[in-house]
UniProtKB/TrEMBL annotation:
Protein name: DUF4031 domain-containing protein
Organism: Microlunatus spumicola
Residue ranges constituting the DUF4031 domain according to the UniProt record: 2-76
Length: 89
């Protein structure tokens, strides 16, 4: 299932959502392609989705959830990839 949280994350003067799958990366990549999201929007285990595209994601079948629910679902599916520390070599 494709999950999306509310666009509450500020960056670059806009608000962003996270778009993820609780099943596979292939599922979220295919969904993102249908929405016309560029591959560069993929951030390790989710897509960053600009607020203007949130309604389109819902209309295409994404389930609205909280940010916490996305993290829990990714962990349960074994898909969670933590960001590397900028201090790490």
């Amino acid at each position: 299932m494709i999950l999306v949280d509310l666009p509450t994350w500020p960056a670059h003067g806009r608000l962003w959502s996270h778009l993820a799958s609780d099943t596979s990366y292939a599922e979220v990549h295919a969904f993102a392609a249908r929405l016309g999201l560029p591959p560069r929007a993929f951030d390790g285990d989710h897509y960053d989705l600009v607020e203007d595209r949130y309604a389109a994601a819902l209309a295409a079948g994404a389930r609205p959830v909280t940010s916490r629910e996305i993290v829990v679902a990714l962990r349960a599916a074994g898909l969670r990839r933590r960001k590397r520390s900028r201090l790490a070599p």
